[in-house]
Amino acid sequence: MSRIIRIAQVGCGYWGPNLLRVFSALSNCSVKWVAEASPARRAFVEANFPNTKTCVDVETVLNDPTVDAVIIATPAATHAGLVERFLNAGKHVLVEKPLTTNVADANRLAALADAKGKVLMVGHTFLYNASVRYMKAMIDSGDIGDIYYCYSQRLNLGQLRQDVNAWWNLAPHDVSIMLYLMNGRLPATVSARGVDYLQPGIEDVTFATLEWADRVTATIHVSWLDPNKVRKLTVVGSRKMIVYDDVSENPITIYNKGFEKVKRDGLPFDQPVHAWKPQHGDVIMPAFERREPLRVECEHFIDCILKGLKPLTDGWHARDTVAVLDAVDRSQRNGGQRIECAAEAQS
User: Fold this and answer.
1) Beta pairing partners, 218
2) Cα–Cα dist 75/98, whole Å
3) Of 63, 228, 285, 333, which sits 20 to 30 A from 1 (CA to CA)?
């Protein structure tokens, strides 16, 4: 008989019910506790998940030796303290993104998980999305050639936050995806401009630029003050181009477009020897199996515990994501100053 992982969840607000729904449906785990301060949210859990107990604070979870793993779905500012407490209590941890709000805490927690021999996984859900993995496979195969540049947009109207700005709220997805596509390589420098239109000191929109040492450049545009819902990432390569549109029925579009270097014949000696010829090939919308990314993520977490695997979105991937987020945020608060990123994450 396979082992059943006993789980407790801390927080059941905006995203917490989705995590609770998925983990409650998995056959190789059971959700024993939900710790939640809000009486209304505890009542929601009790009404919809009768096999799960509720409690007010985390002490009940910390002191329960039968709990193997903890899911943390609380505000970002609370993540570092909670993750540290649960790792020290010998629990595996899945925490929502971002892992922390600064690089020093992220470094410390990633190292602590390794030292304790516990799984620390962060909910960068888009790395469990079949479309993102399709892009990754194409890039790794060399099918699109060398990456020239990429750009993403994550825009919508609403879900204003008072605890974090639009960059920290929305950009963790895009930063995580770009680091994944770049095989974990951090950009050498970042720069950004952000503006706080609605709430003083809380940027509603950010335009960020990431630059890698090999001249690959990426831009990220995030806003919660936009008329359209856009979740799009474009990767331009030397052979092909890929567009990932998360709100489209056909999320991946491959463009066989680019330029071919051709030799010029019969030209005077003072003319260039070569010219660039545009290439216009097929446009393909591939079909592939798609599953709910959150379910794939949750299954991966349980597998990592049972089989001793390293999570795709482990503490170190999350640390690098925080390093980029933090550097961009400092840049936008300092007039777009260029900030070195790679060296800081390694410190």
Assistant:
1) 150, 210
2) 9
3) 63
